[in-house]
Amino acid sequence: GSQGQFPITQNVTVVEGTSANMTCRVDYNDNTSLQWSNPAQQTLFFGDKKALRDHRIELVLASSQELTIRINDVSLSDEGQYTCSLFTMPVKTTKAFLTVLGVPARPEITGITKPATEDDIITLTCTTTGSKPAARIQWLRNDKEVQGTTRVNSTGKSFTVKSTLQFKVDRWDDGVAYTCSVEHESLVDPYLTTEVLEVHYVPHLEIQHSLIIPQEGQYLKLECVSIGNPVPDLVLWSKDGGELPDIERMIVEGSELTITALNKTDNGTYRCEASNHLGTGSAEYILFVYGR
Fold first, then answer.
1. What average pLDDT does range 253-271 have in this prediction?
2. Nearest alpha-carbon partner for 153 in 127, 171, 177
3. What is the CATH number of domain 202-287?
4. pTM more than 0.90
5. CA dihedral defined by 18, 19, 20, 25, rounded to 10 degrees?
6. What is the CATH T-level fold of the domain 105-197, as seen in this structure?
7. What is the CATH number of domain 7-101?
8. What is the per-residue pLDDT for 1?
9. Residue 94 CA to chain centroid, in angstroms?
10. Beta partners for 68?
């Protein structure tokens, strides 16, 4: 009969807060009882009789060949080695390990200064608590992976994972999305959280011109293209360090300067300037008018 055989169990892995089914089977049995006990060696069920007063633990099936119990609302402290005993002489036992996965909390990013100023050093920290085993953190800069520095601390039975990213900001960081991604075996898809950087910087200017070879009699349009955050206020035009000499032919509209009916007296260096609270940017264009 049942003399030579041991009960059959399986290790179980569940996510905290869900339920775990622990099954113990024997192939033949002559009315010998099966028993489940917990890692502290307390009896949970002896056959169909409940031994431990814990409302989370219930009977699923008790027969001569199987004892299956369910632990509901599993917590990290339920993890450990459970024992199924077959009460032959001598008693035969088989162990099953219950692994409980701790779910990471949704990540939070700290350290964003709004707005940051060009050349500031910024340290972004992404934190997720409660994972078991420790979650993995990955940083993305506009969807491209960047390397952070990760620290793992155990808090009780679970882990707090922090990853920091330190960098010097420049104007190209303005509007960039930094995403922290948390991966864990308890999650189907990673948890994501994103912060968009705002960077203030001095205006950068360039002059675009409408003619490659300006000739006498033609008209020339110069446009002062500026980027800056905050957006710079009005554009100022000058020629050779002074005011524009001929306001009849030199027309300023917003960021554009148009010179009609070019002649040799228009030769010189044209400069545009624009400012915000961080400073002033400028650009220059050297005009040489060719004869026809």
1. 95
2. 127
3. 2.60.40.10
4. no
5. -150
6. Immunoglobulin-like (2.60.40)
7. 2.60.40.10
8. 47
9. 44
10. 23, 61
